[in-house]
Specification:
The structure holds 2 protein chains of 2 kinds. By secondary structure, chain A is α/β, with parallel strands linked by helices. Chain A is globular, with a radius of gyration of 19 Å. The longest helix of chain A is centred in the first third of the chain and has 15 residues. Chain A has 11 helices and 4 strands, in the order αααααββααααββαα. Chain A has 2 domains: 35 residues, no CATH class; 145 residues, Nitrile Hydratase, Chain A. The N and C termini of chain A lie far apart (43 Å). Chain A has a two-stranded parallel sheet. By secondary structure, chain B is of the alpha+beta class. Chain B folds into 2 domains: 82 residues, Nitrile hydratase, beta subunit (Cyclin A, domain 1, Orthogonal Bundle), CATH 1.10.472.20; 94 residues, SH3 type barrels, CATH 2.30.30.50. Chain B has 8 helices and 6 strands, in the order H-H-H-H-H-H-E-E-E-H-E-H-E-E. The relative contact order of chain B is 0.14. The chains are: A alpha/beta, B alpha+beta. Chains A and B meet through helix 1, helix 2, helix 8 and strand 3 of A and helix 1, helix 2, helix 4, helix 5 and helix 6 of B.
């Protein structure tokens, strides 16, 4: 079967040579839905390929790099992130209502979905396992500074932390601070510094080597 | 699994709210001790039975035993247009907004037994409206077969110290519908 699930959306403890009971349940469901004519296996392949190779955090990185280099675009992003992001071609499911959150020297934004796993797919693709797990979902709103430390980010005490719980269909994209010493870099080079985590707010943009 | 449910959802015709509600419909003890992936699988199996697409026995065996509903599965060529289609959850408002940016509000201390998007940790707490998003589809109605029932949606800011006590100093924001809020 082409969809062994090894690249998407399952827990690490399902991995290994033996299929776990959970993986077997999913395989049974897939076989059933194909047999009953509800799902076309070719469409499954396209859907998987779409979120593995076409829609992912490199999209969001383009948005951030443009915001860093084009003040007019940054203003548009603040005013109407949905349209500004759409102008770069990133539209669709789970990106219907976008808001951009700009980190500054004085404040740090961080995004969570305490109720499920809401995430801005058109700009970031599908969420990492930890984003969907109970520890991140509960602790991000209780002790964000401690969670950030575990991600290797220690913020100054006087920096304000703003946590955004995605409880409706509004989706949040963090615009990390532009690293110092990047004044001469091109938009492409800047985009390479923008990590997935920096756009969730659990990381910072990379400093050029 | 993600791809599977996105595609079968095209045939099932359920809303995102009904999907989330189904994922939450496990016995509480099972819900809290299982992974997100299991919640999702549980939701899928629940929706397939509820919408008459498959029986419990079929799901257990993985083999079809009853006639299928007549349906055309989403073809491969329709996947990209579907995932990149521009949608909106905003609807025509039926009444003026009760609140505006800057208003002090309190979340209602309510405990509905059905699906809701008012997090338990934010019930009965004081906050401030910082954004008004228009009227949006109301999950508490839409998940439970009562239609979209649009209500005004706001971003509300809370001080963590007010929510959790102690010395917490961060700010928490949530997107909340008007029926979750009262004037302070």
């Amino acid at each position: 079967m082409p969809h062994d699930g090894h690249h998407h959306d399952h827990d690490h403890d399902d991995e290994g040579s033996e299929l776990s009971p959970l993986a077997l349940r999913v395989k049974a469901l897939e076989s059933l839905l194909v047999e009953k004519g509800y799902v076309d296996p070719a469409a499954l392949d396209v859907m998987i390929d779409t979120y593995e190779t076409k829609i992912g955090p490199r999209n969001g990185a383009r948005v951030v790099a443009r915001a860093w280099t084009d003040p007019d675009f940054a203003q548009w992003l603040k005013r109407d992130a949905t349209e500004a992001i759409a102008s770069l071609g990133y539209v669709g499911r789970q990106g219907e209502h976008m808001v951009a959150l700009f980190n500054t020297p004085a404040l740090h934004n961080m995004v969570v979905c305490t109720l499920c796993s809401c995430y801005p797919w058109p700009v970031l693709g599908l969420p990492p396992v930890w984003y969907k797990a109970m520890p991140y979902r509960s602790r991000a709103v209780i002790e964000p500074r401690e969670v950030l430390k575990e991600f290797g980010v220690t913020l100054p005490e006087d920096k304000e932390v703003r946590v955004w719980d995605s409880t409706a269909e509004v989706r949040y994209l963090v615009i990390p601070e532009r690293p110092e010493g990047t004044g001469s870099l091109s938009e492409d080079q800047l985009a390479a510094l923008v990590t997935r985590d920096s756009m969730i707010g659990t990381g910072l943009a990379k400093v050029p080597a | 699994m993600f791809a599977l449910m996105n595609l079968v959802g095209d045939i099932g015709g359920w809303s995102i709210d009904e999907d989330r509600s189904a994922c939450e419909s496990m016995a509480p003890g099972d819900y809290i001790t299982s992974s997100y992936y299991e919640h999702w699988l549980h939701g899928a199996e629940t929706l397939l039975q509820k919408h008459g697409l498959a029986t419990r026995d079929e799901i257990a065996s993985g083999r079809a035993a009853t006639p299928s509903r007549a349906a055309t599965p989403t073809p491969a060529s329709s996947v990209w247009p579907a995932v990149t289609a521009r949608g909106s959850y905003q609807r025509q408002a039926r009444a003026p907004a009760l609140f505006e940016v800057g208003d002090a509000v309190r979340t209602r201390n309510i405990h509905p037994t059905g699906h809701t998007r008012l997090p338990r940790y934010l019930r009965g707490h004081a906050g401030e409206i910082i954004a008004v998003h228009g009227a949006h589809v109301f999950p508490d109605s839409n998940a439970n077969g009562r239609g979209e029932d649009p209500h005004w949606l706001y971003t509300v800011r809370f001080n963590a110290g007010e929510v959790w006590g102690g010395g917490s100093s961060h700010l928490i924001h949530a997107d909340l519908w008007e029926p979750y809020l009262e004037s302070l």
